[in-house]
Amino acid sequence: MDLLNAVVQVLDSTIRLSVPLLLACLAGLYSERAGIFDIGLEGKMLVGAFAGAAAASVFHSAFLGLGMAILISVAFAMVHGFASITHRGNQIVSGVAINFIAAGSTIILGQAWFQQGGRTPALQSGERFESITADTISNFLANYSFSSADLLASIRGLVLYLPALLFDALARIPGFGPVFSELLLGHSILVYFAFAMVPFTWWVLYRTRFGLRLRAVGENPAAVDTAGISVAWLRYRALICTGVLTGVAGAYLSMVQTSGFVKDMTAGKGYIALAALIFAKWKPVNAMFACLLFGFLDAASIRLQGSPLPVVGKVSAQFMQALPYVLTVILLAGFIGKAIPPRAGGVPYVKER
Amino acid sequence: MSTPYAKLPAWADYGLIPLINLSVAFIVAGFVVLLVGENPFRAAVILVEGAFGKGTGIAFTLFYATTFIFTGLSVAVAAHCGLFNIGTEGQAYIAGLGIAIVCLSFDSVLPWWLTFPMAIVASAAVGALWALIPAYLQAKRGSHIVITTIMFNFIAASVMVYLLVGPLKPAGSQAPQTRNFLAGAELPKLNWIIELFGAKIRSAPLNICFLLALVMAFVVWLLIWRTKLGYEMRTYGHSPKAARYAGISETRIIITAMMISGALAGMMALNPVMGDQHNVAIDFVSGAGFVGIAVALMGRLHPIGIVLAAILFGMLYQGGAELSFEMPAITRDMIVIIQGLVILFAGALEHMFRPYIQALFASFSPRSVGMEAVKGKGA
Predict the structure, then answer these.
(1) What ipTM was estimated for this complex?
(2) DSSP symbols for B174-241
(3) Cβ contacts of residue B326 below 8 Å, gap of 6+?
(4) What does the alpha-carbon distance between residue A140 and residue B38 come to, in Å, rounded to a whole number?
(5) Which chain A residues have a beta carbon less than 8 Å from that of B316?
(6) What is the per-residue pLDDT for B1?
(7) Whole-angstrom distance, CA of residue A22 vs CA of residue B166
(8) Residue B85: CA count within 13 A, CB half-sphere
(9) Which residue of A67, A268, A284, B185 sits 20 to 30 Å from the alpha carbon of A226, by its own alpha carbon?
(10) Of A37, A97, A107, the CB nearest to B344
């Protein structure tokens, strides 16, 4: 039972750690599938995290924080678009620039506004997204009443708890119940949102007109242009999706995983997400598994700190930390299948003159 | 990297446009200072005074500039070959290992003028080797060099942390760094040059690496514009197809360019390690590799431009340190913002103001631009 407990615990933290990776990875998927390389995921997550925590602590509302995180993150995505779509600048250079501007400005503004060494004030209970446990669900059910007088609040409550209610029902299955409730309950709404984005992204990409055009513009923008569709507008819309998702990823970091912004809190997660995107060969469902794998490596390295493994002996933390990057390089080298990026990726589109 | 625009006179192309881009970057940075609640003009005055007002300030400015010349040259050499080496940071970091091995072995037996050449070779070799794998993968397997070099930055960081908290750390020490080097691995200072001009210097880390950096800038100029290899690199950078047609081996040119780039990045480590700290510590590169991107873009990939841009960034670093004493709200992270803005406006948005300047030139003298520019506004 001890072993099962340990396994469940590691899996539980795997889920928590892979959520920001997954959101950022799907964000990158939208832009790269539209032919815009985006190494600025890191920076956009960072400004999202800062804006979210700052707004939440000033306005005392988690939802306003989330909204602000998305808004600022989208604004940064638009800067990337302005440079790389409108002015046909180098997309890598623009992404690098965004990462620096984000890293510097979050610290400078954080220090100037809150004077806590680049931190934002610690978020109180109403200002962050709480995890939804079995207790909160039963409380919620006991007090819930659908009233037409306060229709909006009733609907919001339902939406907030719907996924949790679903998993609560699963958790009542005998046998697997406890494992389920450990893994699937006790998360915040953003966790369910992240995993719901996987099938949603799949559906958008492969089953909608927008998705078809988005994929086309990443492979052959001239063909899309010939069909009378604006390449620039399509790519801007892809970048808006990217901005929204990186904003949520940032908000998750500063408003769920911790309570407040700390400088450089993304700590390379944007780049791991980029690695995961390549590892997933630019496909949404693969992206989820890649992020879970990298999240698992992270969780396992935290868990294994100092304690030896049965077969290989003591594994250094640095080795585990480097593993995602090493795996990605091996994949890129073509030793585990071949990663073929969208063909028009990184090339600014010039209308025929 | 051909421009789809009509030609401008050379002085506008190499002087005016970069100057405008740079000014816009600094104006936006000024707005950030305003947002923080300080006076941007006063900040600029303090910054320039801190960097050039006193002898010590100048020495520090040139010390930082030394580091940025190396990383800027590194990025530029790769860029001439059409490769974006974003791995300068990691190549410099891992080169610290080569320097550590040389210095820790010989610092008690040899004088500095024997250790230094060996350390140069070791740092360049390790840096070049760290660039070799991404270069090989790009040339042979088509793996995107930007992604692989980013990955190699993180791998380098993990390797160095592992070594510095483990094997390289002296027994009984808590700090994650090597033992301090003895006199045999300490480079002579250059402060006397500034003292010749009558300035007083307290203690500044400006050292002989500055001269090495200037020599390397000249060597890079020779390489790019005066050798067959440089010509081949530029050809490949302009048009890989044309290079292939001309019989230039793609594999050879990519690997050579990246290894030279990596070697230059590696030599950057000499300056802080042997010239200043006299040990290899965790994160001693601290972003200088990324500054190299801004320096190379600002210097328009030309060694003279890179030296000037490196001195400008040295000024920002030194002046920024002084500034944070006077205005506590503006820490050195302000430089990171400026760096980002410079990369944005001088790099990604370098053509933003071009059409307007062309229109301006055309209205004064249509001949200087050619009629095409006037007609081809939609282009």
Answers:
(1) 0.84
(2) -SSBPPPP-GGG-PPB-HHHHHHTT---S----BTHHHHHHHHHHHHHHHHHHSHHHHHHHHHHH-HH
(3) B46
(4) 49
(5) none
(6) 40
(7) 33
(8) 41
(9) A284
(10) A97
What are the φ and ψ backbone dihedral angles of B189, each rounded to 5 degrees?
Answer: -80, 160
What residue spans of chain A are helical by DSSP H? 2-33, 41-59, 62-81, 91-114, 134-143, 151-171, 177-184, 189-207, 209-219, 221-226, 231-252, 269-279, 284-303, 317-332
Residue B279 zone, left/alpha/beta (φ > 0; ψ -120 to 50; rest): beta
d(C-alpha B319, C-alpha B116), whole Å: 30
Question: What whole-number distance in Å separates Cα of residue B29 and Cα of residue A1?
Answer: 58
Interface test with A, best of B155, B286, B375 (most A CBs within 10 A): B155
Return the residue matching tokens 């690695």: A275
Give the closest residue to B303 by CA, choosing from B81, B80, B61.
Answer: B80
Distance in angstroms (rounded) separating the CA atoms of residues A298 and A135: 29
Among A59-73, A117-131, A136-150, B222-236, whose mean pLDDT is lowest?
A136-150
**Percent of chain B residues past pLDDT 70, beyond the cut:** 94
Q: From the CB of residue B196, how many other CB atoms can be counted at a distance below 10 Å?
A: 8
d(CA A19, CA A257): 10
- Round to whole Å and give the CA distance between B335 and B315: 10
Q: Which of B86, B300, B334, B337 to mutate to test binding with chain A, by most A CBs within 10 Å of its CB?
A: B337
Chain A neighbors of B162, CB-CB under 8 A: 316, 318-319
Which domains does chain A carry? 2-131+187-332 (1.10.3470)
Q: Which has the closest alpha carbon to B331: A104, A178, A64, A35?
A: A104
Cβ–Cβ gap B340/A87 under 8 Å: no
Strand partners, B207: B189
Residue B157 main-chain phi, psi, to 5 deg: -60, -45
Q: How far is A278 from chain B (nearest CA, A)?
A: 9
Mean pLDDT value of segment B328-340: 83
* Cα B239 to Cα B233: distance, rounded to the nearest angstrom: 10
Q: What is the pLDDT of residues B58-99, one digit of tens each?
A: 889 999 999 999 999 999 999 999 898 989 999 999 999 999
Place of tokens 């032919």: A35
Closest CA to A101 of A117, A77, A120: A77
Query: How far away is chain A from the Cα of B273, in angstroms, using its nearest Cα?
Result: 23
Look up residue B376 and give its amino acid: G
Q: Which domains does chain B have, with CATH numbers?
A: 38-348 (1.10.3470)
Is the CB of B3 inside 8 Å of chain A's CB atoms?
Answer: no
